[in-house]
Amino acid sequence: xxxxxxxxxxxxxxxxxxxxxxxxxxxxxxxxxxxxxxxxxxxxxxxxxxxxxxxxxxxxxxxxxxxxxxxxxxxxxxxxxxxxxxxxxxxxxxxxxxxxxxxxxxxxxxxxxxxxxxxxxxxxxxxxxxxxxxxxxxxxxxxxxxxxxxxxxxxxxxxxxxxxxxxxxxxxxxxxxxxxxxxxxxxxxxxxxxxxxxxxx
Length: 201
Fold this sequence. Notes:
- The model has no long low-confidence stretch (mean pLDDT about 90).
- The relative contact order is 0.08.
- It contains 8 helices and 6 strands, in the order αααββαβαβαβαβα.
- It has a domain at about 75-170: Dna Topoisomerase Vi A Subunit, Chain: A, domain 2 (3-Layer(aba) Sandwich).
- The chain has a 4-stranded parallel beta sheet with strand order 4-3-5-6. It has a two-stranded antiparallel sheet with strand order 1-2.
- Helix 7 links the parallel strand 5 and strand 6 (about 170).
- By secondary structure, it is an alpha/beta fold.
- The chain has helices spanning about 5-15, 20-35, 35-50, 70-75, 90-95, 125-135, 150-165, 190-195; strands at about 55, 60-65, 80-85, 105, 140, 170.
């Protein structure tokens, strides 16, 4: 029989996505055997997580609780006329690491998935439509995930935006074969996308 405190930690860690019971046990034993300062630092970080982070009222990106709006929106070097739309806040940082985008972002808060109870009215679509006029947006770049839900969301976004703003430029991230992959290992969806998005040499 495990001590109650250890059992509670294993149970808590096991609730994290991608962490099974065996992995939760390994993490818990590691923390038990390690310097107590490590556990205290993790505990303090968790304690401050919800009070130290909030959602931007304009872009819905995550930011420090002390900030009024996200620096990725407020930065004067950012081009507010170009908005890249993603499903989740952490998707922004994948784009930011490329250092190739200087526009602003808009986080939908997920993708349409009726099976999971996520309908269009639960996403930040209305706020995106309002931003087009407020920020004099010229281009919306849709960067939803290449999944059934992501595709459905992208199609609906395109429809709603064009209904309201017929002249608005709406683009999507190009999709196709990643560098280093052999054709024989590519799936049909990737190959189809690569054919549709082929470019001139």
